Amino acid sequence: MLIHPQFDPVAVSFGPLAVRWYGLMYLAGFVAFLWLGRLRATSQPWHVMTAQDLDDLLFYGVLGVIVGGRLGQVLFYEPGYYLAHPLEILAVWKGGMSFHGGFLGVLAAMLLFARKRGSRFLAVTDFIAPLVPLGLGAGRIGNFINGELWGRIASPELPWAMIFPQVDMQARHPSQLYQAGLEGLALFALLWWFSRRQRPVGQISGLFLVGYGVFRFAAEYFREPDAGIFGLSYMVSMGQWLSLPMIVVGIALIVRGK
């Protein structure tokens, strides 16, 4: 059995300025987005994306992630708390970002980008879908460093079961690492392989929706559930409820492409 290392959430500080690991993980995700995007644009000629397009995509995406992710946390998971402490909504450096909210924010941002550029919305999302998972994985590593979003109680006999002292002294699943592996590495490998050749418009986006939805649904069984707008449930968590529409829409896009 392991014990969570209790990392200092601050990676480095310069006087009053503190650089947190959580923010560095987001930065790593954005850097991976640009690097993979340039690689994808140059190796797959059917995508007409320039370096300027990638910079614009990142700008729109960052806004969508931050605004949507924070609003998703506020509306889906902790509306009561933030209604009582409205100024805390702006304290994004403390953590508290909802993937599903960030996902909706990115969709809105990509819609604006596609309209501005005169491109098909699904063609844009097909291009960016394989670029996203590594950033998601980095975000889960940030959750692990912060010691947040810990897992459910596990058997002490499980070799990688972990105690999170800030919670209690019971063995728990390190669910942040499970999610980093599934939603990050596994989803990236699946999408990068699938997108190596040209696909009907919408299919890559559909596979992202199905892949993330299934991986997240499975990982939620090892993660201590959050108290969402439907209350606290160990049967079907808020994260699972929000993943179900992704799976349904993803299947529809894949079938439509065929």
From TrEMBL:
Sequence intervals crossing the membrane: 20-37, 57-77, 97-114, 121-141, 177-194, 201-219, 231-255
UniProt EC number: 2.5.1.145
EC main group: transferase
Keywords: Cell membrane, Lipoprotein, Membrane, Transferase, Transmembrane, Transmembrane helix
Positions with a binding annotation for a 1,2-diacyl-sn-glycero-3-phospho-(1'-sn-glycerol): 140
Major location (coarse): membrane
Entry membrane topology: Multi-pass membrane protein
GO function terms (MF aspect): phosphatidylglycerol-prolipoprotein diacylglyceryl transferase activity
Pfam families per record: LGT (PF01790)
GO biological process, one term: lipoprotein biosynthetic process
Localisation: Cell membrane
Listed pathway(s): Protein modification; lipoprotein biosynthesis (diacylglyceryl transfer)
InterPro entries: Lgt
A GO-annotated cellular component: plasma membrane
Family recorded in the similarity comment: Belongs to the Lgt family.
Cited PANTHER family: PHOSPHATIDYLGLYCEROL--PROLIPOPROTEIN DIACYLGLYCERYL TRANSFERASE (PTHR30589:SF0), PROLIPOPROTEIN DIACYLGLYCERYL TRANSFERASE (PTHR30589)
Function of the protein: Catalyzes the transfer of the diacylglyceryl group from phosphatidylglycerol to the sulfhydryl group of the N-terminal cysteine of a prolipoprotein, the first step in the formation of mature lipoproteins.
Protein name in the entry: Phosphatidylglycerol--prolipoprotein diacylglyceryl transferase
Organism field: Sulfurisoma sediminicola
Organism taxonomic ancestry: Bacteria, Pseudomonadati, Pseudomonadota, Betaproteobacteria, Nitrosomonadales
